[in-house]
Amino acid sequence: MQFEHIGIIGAGAMGHGIAHVSAAAGFRVTLYDVDEVRVAAGIRKIEAALDKGVEKGKVTPDARTAALRLLDSTTELADLADADLLIEAIPERLEMKQSLFHQLDTICSPSAVFATNTSSLSIARIASSVADPSRVIGTHFFNPVHLMTLLEVVVHAGTREDVRENILKYGARIGKECIVVNDAPGFATSRLGVCLGMEAIRMVEQGVASPEDIDKAMCLGYRHPVGPLRLTDMVGLDVRLAIGEYLARELNNPAFEPPALMRKMVAEGKLGQKTGAGFYSW
Questions:
Q1: What is the pLDDT of residues 13-30, one digit of tens each?
Q2: Beta-strand runs (E) in 64-222
Q3: 185-240: per-residue pLDDT in tens?
Q4: Between 7 and which of 80, 137, 258, 259 could a Cys-Cys bridge form, CB atoms 3.0 to 4.6 Å apart?
Q5: C-beta atoms surrounding 269 within 10 Å
């Protein structure tokens, strides 16, 4: 098994980032989304990121041109039929991911690998939607994909060893440090990160300290590159709220239960960086 053509489903923040690093590593990439507006927006963001890399001297003009030549886009799932690695980066809803993989199962080669960028959902449940669950694996990327080094590879009990090994090779080729985690709610990263984030929000709610000082404590005292509240803004309060609800239910652990302050902010549309307001003004 050797990946050559990669299909990315979802042109949002994660999807276009995965397409960017894959094309930059020399893979032929097709970026899919449901309409031309979303696809075009994703391609523009890839171009902008490559341009910034050239400006900073981290990407050569030739490398920029080569990456963009390997990048195609589509609004038709059928155009992904010959891809040998499919990576979904659609909203964090189990039914949506299962439905997508079921569709891809009827379109793509039986040898193609299906990877999900879920940050917390069960890989085994997603895999149950295809005829051969052994070809399904988790590839949890981090935003912004072209700058973040980590790739969390998540295997369920039925994931084939060759699928795991080839995903690790793919991760190395796109410049990622991979960790391998067994399929459990929240995996390693979301389970720890969301727990910390929820407690930080409770501290704001209880008047323990300001968001700025809580974040500064973790950055200076524990050497975290980004504080838990700023990170929550960057991920999106709505996204983290959904993950927190899921983990609280699956793990039967109230530490993950979203605080009332978080629910209030989401209801008011204060979702963080993407809306310009959260714990910080963006």
A1: 899 999 999 999 999 999
A2: 71-74, 85-88, 113-116, 136-140, 150-155, 177-182
A3: 999 999 999 999 999 999 999 999 999 999 999 999 999 999 999 999 998 999 99
A4: 80
A5: 11
With beta carbons less than 8 A apart as the criterion, state whether 67 and 23 touch: yes
Identify the sign of the CA torsion 147, 233, 47, 85. positive
Question: In angstroms, what is the C-alpha Rg of the chain?
Answer: 19
The 3-state DSSP class for residue 32 equals: strand
The sign of the torsion formed by the CA atoms of 11, 24, 113, 194 equals negative
Decide the pairing of beta strands 136-140 and 150-155: antiparallel
Structure tokens that stand for 55 in this block = 């400006």
Residues 173, 29: contact at Cβ < 8 Å? no
User: What domains appear along the chain, each with residue ranges and CATH number?
Assistant: 5-182 (3.40.50.720), 189-271 (1.10.1040.10)
Does this model's pTM top 0.70? My answer is: yes
Side-chain half-sphere of 59: how many Cα atoms within 13 Å?
24
Count of residues in the chain = 282
- Residue 273, burial from CB neighbour count under 10 angstroms (0-12, 13-18, 19+): middle
Triad 38, 40, 43: Cα angle to 5°? 110
> How far is the C-alpha of 11 from the C-alpha of 249, rounded, in Å?
30
Smallest CA-to-CA distance from 82 within 29, 1, 8, 5 is with 5
**Which of 78-117 are b and which e, b meaning 16 or more Cβ less than 10 Å from the residue's Cβ?**
eebeebbbbbbbbebeeeebbebbebbbebbeeebbbbbb
Cβ–Cβ < 8 Å for 177, 151? yes
- What is the rounded distance in angstroms from the CA atom of residue 185 to the CA atom of residue 201? 21
Judged by DSSP in three states, 210 sits in coil
